[in-house]
Structures are given as C-alpha cells and as structure tokens.
Amino acid sequence: MDKKFLKKLIFCISFVIIIYGCATKPGPNLASKAALIHPKQTTKAEVLQFLGPPVQIFTFPDGKEEWYYYYRVRNFWEKVPVVKEYKGEDYTEVLKITIKGEEVIDCTYYTITSPKKKK
C-alpha cells in the first residue's frame, strides 16, 4: 500500500471520529434539575417551567400523579463493534416527581444501568 494513501486514510478516519465526537450534544442533567424541585414548596406549574412536560404521567384514584422524566446517557462508542464493550458509560437517568393537587409532595432521582451481556 502506498504511504501517502495510508496517511490520507488515517487522517480521514481520525477526522471523522473527531467530528462525530464534537457533534454529540449534551442532554439535560436531571440530577441538577432535581435540585430545583422542593417537596411541599414547588408547584406543578413550576415543575413544568423548569423541566417542561414529562415523558410519562401516572394518575392514581386518590388524586396523586407521578411524573417521569428520562434521559439516556449513551456510550460514545456504542456503534463501533469491538470497542463498545470496553469504553464509555451507558445508563438512564430517571426523575420521578409525585404531585397532589398543585403541590409537589416527593421528588426522586435515580439511575438505571443496563445489564452487561455475558460473553
């Protein structure tokens, strides 16, 4: 193989990887947004102002509502066959807000990690 061609190929691959890495956008940080929610103080309207509409809403007969917000933190390398098993993070952030009437009564933040595949 020609050395010039090999150098160009390495440059192109490196360039694509760098551009792909720069193109990913950070998502919402649900942990910091959870800090804005104060049970017995924050209203339903304020939650909508801070976080927007929830992804899921569960309504119960006693009038309580559970609002769920999710954000998946993806492994940067997840589309690269061999490397995806060894590098990066992959988990889902969950913010659960319990509301009764117009008042927040509980706010819980947690993460869910996908189980690793057995080899």
TrEMBL record:
Domain of life of the native organism: Bacteria
Name this protein carries in UniProt: Lipoprotein SmpA/OmlA domain-containing protein
Organism the protein comes from: Thermodesulfobacterium geofontis
Species classification: Bacteria, Pseudomonadati, Thermodesulfobacteriota, Thermodesulfobacteria, Thermodesulfobacteriales
